[in-house]
Amino acid sequence: MQSSGGLSGVNQSRLINGFLMSFLAALRSLTEQVAGRLRLMIKPSVPFLKNRLMFGV
Q1: In 3D, which of 37, 19, 15 has the Cα closest to residue 27?
Q2: C-alpha distances in Å from residue 3, one per residue of 8, 42, 51
Q3: N or C: which end of the chain has fewer CB within 10 A?
Q4: What is the pLDDT of residue 22?
Q5: Burial of 29 by CB count in 10 Å (0-12 exposed, 13-18 middle, 19+ buried)?
């Protein structure tokens, strides 16, 4: 008898769900890292911009 070409003994939907969940977790981690770096870059420039807007310097 021929096999269907799938992985034997492994539920394919669980395999796909596991892959998607790990991909989404990695994507979320990456976006948190980028957001953290942007906050570090923006934070020092806020007082400068505030002074510039208030005093027209």
Answers
A1: 19
A2: 9, 57, 71
A3: N
A4: 96
A5: exposed
What is the distance between the alpha carbons of residues 54 and 57, in angstroms, rounded to a whole number? 8
Q: How far apart are CA 41 and CA 17, in angstroms?
A: 36
pLDDT of residue 35: 85
Both structure tokens of 47:
């007082």
In whole angstroms, what is the distance from residue 17 CA to residue 3 CA? 23
Instruction: Give per-residue pLDDT as tens, 8-35.
Output: 656 888 899 999 999 999 999 999 988 8
Average pLDDT of the chain is 77
One-letter amino acid at 26 equals A
